[in-house]
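User: Here's a structure from my thesis project, written as structure tokens. My advisor, Dr. K., wants to see whether a designed sequence matches the one we expressed. Can you design one independently, without my sequence as a hint?
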């Protein structure tokens, strides 16, 4: 279906997609910097069909995208100090600005905070919640949607009520398997409270927690992904007897923006908002089946406008989930938040966001709460024997910081992924920490001393200098934010 070439760091450098070849380039920090799509194979590609170029800031936030299409176009983004999106502008649709409260809720007008993190209005849309914190109504002035749930807080029914009473209502019902995966969607038209016409059912088949097929009648649409653990779609195969293959061309966060056929012709193209809403699309597929994959792990229900995100539903009109996080505070302090921004973060299961679109890898640096969950790991970088037990390590020892620094939180503190098997960097660092802590006054060091000692321990254990320096740099920025609450703390001396 596709042939891949990779560099010495195992990063993808090219893939074939029918008669097209996509070539990828990376900057010196390993971030995806450019993609060019050519007609022809990887060795002799010609001519170039289109290209994308991306730039990042020092926090690894995406700040600019250039599209060398016809005509040339671009996007630009600005963020606050917490990585939350403030401005999107450019030559394409979707120019927006945002304000946020301290908990990461979007604000409108003179509103300064969102009570219980339950957003009630934004951009002319209103929401209502039940006593369980589930969204039960949404109203955009033209249509009102009513949501119903089962005892497991899973969405089971959505009824849309157009303001124009001459238009039919739409009832959409959902069924799930014992693992919480959605297995069917049934749509009915209703007029005057009575069904009109026949019900249309779409069935869903899963491979683990990845969508494998959507089945319309007897026609399966089968999804293939970039690798065995990725949620980044590679291709869709329509039908069985005379299958037609479409290849996906995705943004850095894995959101499809084009589909091409075996001849290299564009069969679908979409323009997305910064939070994954489909703003416009053009479609020339002869198969007649819409392209509904959105951000990684998300499937668009066109009847409701919501995205099924495995264990929850995502509302792209506000960039948030309709239900509270099923894993509670383990997924973050804001139970409705998707992520600080959707350009560099993904959440394939709808429970725990991840800043690495294809999963975190050994050497990555980010808050411990993002690195630690197993759902966020790339293939070959899991906490398993075969992968060398890759675990999250706090540069400033977690146990020491809990004892000595006011306001410290382990999940929001920076950490880095290290192999932890015997003789590996994490094991060596842990051994060094245990040795010095048992000495007299071993726990009475200052924060400045911890920075110096911890950096040396990482270097001595074999952690690459670039990784160690970023870990220490991010840690300094984190602890600097705790300065006020430690004004009289003798251990806080940075």
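Assistant: Designed independently from the structure alone:
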């Amino acid at each position: 279906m596709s042939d891949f070439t990779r560099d010495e760091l195992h990063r993808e450098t090219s893939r074939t997609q029918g008669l097209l070849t996509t070539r990828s380039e990376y900057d010196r920090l390993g971030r995806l910097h450019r993609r060019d799509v050519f007609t022809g194979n990887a060795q002799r590609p010609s001519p170039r069909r289109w290209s994308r170029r991306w730039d990042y800031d020092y926090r690894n936030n995406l700040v600019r995208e250039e599209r060398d299409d016809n005509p040339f176009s671009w996007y630009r983004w600005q963020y606050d100090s917490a990585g939350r999106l403030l401005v999107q502008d450019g030559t394409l649709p979707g120019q927006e600005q945002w304000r946020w409260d301290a908990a990461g809720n979007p604000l409108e007008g003179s509103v300064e905070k969102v009570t219980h993190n339950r957003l009630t209005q934004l951009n002319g849309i209103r929401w209502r919640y039940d006593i369980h914190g589930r969204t039960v109504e949404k109203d955009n002035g033209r249509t009102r949607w009513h949501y119903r749930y089962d005892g497991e807080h899973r969405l089971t029914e959505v009824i849309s009520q157009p303001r124009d009473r001459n238009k039919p209502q739409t009832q959409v019902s959902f069924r799930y398997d014992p693992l919480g995966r959605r297995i069917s969607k049934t749509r009915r038209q209703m007029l005057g409270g009575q069904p009109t016409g026949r019900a249309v059912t779409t069935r869903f088949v899963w491979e683990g927690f990845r969508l494998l097929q959507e089945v319309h009648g007897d026609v399966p649409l089968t999804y293939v992904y970039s690798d065995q653990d990725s949620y980044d779609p590679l291709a869709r195969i329509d039908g069985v007897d005379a299958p037609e293959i479409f290849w996906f061309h995705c943004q850095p966060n894995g959101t499809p923006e084009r589909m091409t056929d075996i001849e290299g012709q564009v069969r679908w193209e979409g323009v997305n908002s910064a939070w994954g809403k489909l703003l416009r699309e053009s479609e020339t597929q002869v198969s007649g089946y819409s392209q509904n994959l959105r951000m990684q792990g998300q499937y668009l229900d066109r009847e409701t406008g919501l995205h099924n995100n495995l264990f929850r539903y995502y509302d792209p009109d506000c960039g948030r989930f309709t239900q509270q996080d099923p894993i509670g505070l383990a997924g973050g302090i804001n139970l409705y938040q998707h992520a600080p921004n959707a350009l560099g973060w993904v959440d394939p299961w709808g429970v725990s966001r991840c800043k690495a679109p294809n999963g975190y890898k050994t050497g990555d640096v980010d808050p411990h709460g993002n690195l630690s969950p197993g759902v966020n790991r790339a293939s070959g970088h899991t906490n398993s024997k075969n992968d060398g037990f890759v675990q999250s390590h706090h540069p400033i020892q977690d146990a020491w910081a809990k004892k000595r620094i006011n306001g410290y939180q382990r999940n929001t503190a920076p950490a880095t992924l290290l192999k932890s098997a015997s003789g590996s960097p994490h094991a060596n660092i842990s051994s060094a920490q245990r040795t010095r802590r048992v000495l007299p006054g071993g726990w009475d060091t200052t924060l400045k001393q911890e920075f110096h000692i911890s950096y040396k321990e990482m270097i001595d254990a074999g952690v690459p200098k670039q990784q160690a320096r970023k870990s220490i740099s991010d840690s300094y920025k984190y602890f600097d934010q705790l300065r006020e609450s430690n004004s009289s703390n003798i251990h806080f001396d940075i």
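When you compare it with your expressed construct, this may help: DSSP finds five helices and 33 strands in the chain.
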